[in-house]
Amino acid sequence: MQNIHTVKDKSIRTLSHECYVSTTTMIRFVRKLGFSGYSDFINLLRLTDFSAAAPQTPQWDSRNEYLTGYVDMIVQTLRIVSEDKLTRFHEYLARSSRIFLLSDEFCREAASYALRLFTTLGFLVFAPAEPYELRSAVRQITGDDLLMVLSCTGQEKGVINTMERILSEKRPTMVSITGLGSNVIQNTSDLNFYAFTSPAFYMGSDISSRAPMQAILEVLVYSWAARNQGGPQEIPTAPEGTDNSERV
Fold first, then answer.
1. pLDDT tens digits along 136-156
2. Which helix (H) or strand (E) segment is 132 a member of?
3. Tell me: domain 1-50, CATH 1.10.10.10, correct?
4. pTM tops 0.70, yes or no
């Protein structure tokens, strides 16, 4: 992830040689990551590198182009949610007494959505946002809890400071959802999920960048319900007094 710019142009033989492994080992590696083969893996790296270098403000020529890009971000995100990561998340969730959600301001809506989703499953969930709520969370969280951090950049200082305070005093299991590319939050996590986001996200101007993150949350919740309740369950209606279009 730290060398996408150079790796994206290497053949399988060149990269295998530089990593001191066989081409067969390299193929097994990319398939375990969820890709069909080496070409699929390289194409994704090129797409990621291109997105990172693109202008901050997206230029949509038409409604269809916008919709194509919107759907593509979600599809690419879900393609790399591996079964192994889902299994690990289920193990962490099963042994957690509470869930604490930590997010930056641009991911606040995704954190609120996560709160509704996990509360529906019967978990005790907290999403501190105000300074006094964050201070309380730092005091209350324990090693038996699950800390979920949502940040598309993975570098937001306020989130990192709160996260470091928690980890310095307690040691809860930490799961994060961040954008592609090496970042502080990802590297600190016990488990990380990548979300493809539009470059405009980093300017705070593209709300569609939150959609891939919310898609991951839905997969985490749905897969937990399916595995622990014997299969897909009936979708519950929204709480009384809310718009019925907002369903889990």
1. 888 999 999 999 999 877 778
2. helix 131-140
3. yes
4. no
Q: What is the pLDDT of residues 198-216, one digit of tens each?
A: 544 444 445 556 788 889 9
Task: Confirm if 230 and 242 have CB atoms less than 8 A apart.
Answer: no
Show Cβ contacts of residue 132 under 8 Å, excluding neighbours closer than 6 positions.
none
Write the DSSP symbol of residue 200.
Answer: G
Burial class of residue 95 in the structure, from the number of CB atoms within 10 Å of its CB (0-12 exposed, 13-18 middle, 19+ buried): exposed
Go through 149-174 and write b for each residue having 16 or more CB atoms within 10 A of its CB, e for each that does not.
bbbbbbbbeebbebbeebeeebebbb
Only one residue has tokens 């309740």, namely 229
Dihedral sign (CA 54, 149, 204, 245): positive
CATH 1.10.10.10 domain position(s) in the chain: 1-50
166 φψ region: left (φ > 0), alpha (ψ -120 to 50), beta (else)? alpha
Give the Å distances, CA to CA, from 222 to 216, 226, 229, 230.
10, 6, 10, 12
Query: Which parts of the chain have pLDDT scores under 70?
Result: 1-2, 48-67, 180-181, 197-209, 230-248
Tell me the CATH number of domain 83-228, given options 3.40.50.10490, 2.40.10.330, 3.40.190.10, 3.30.540.10: 3.40.50.10490
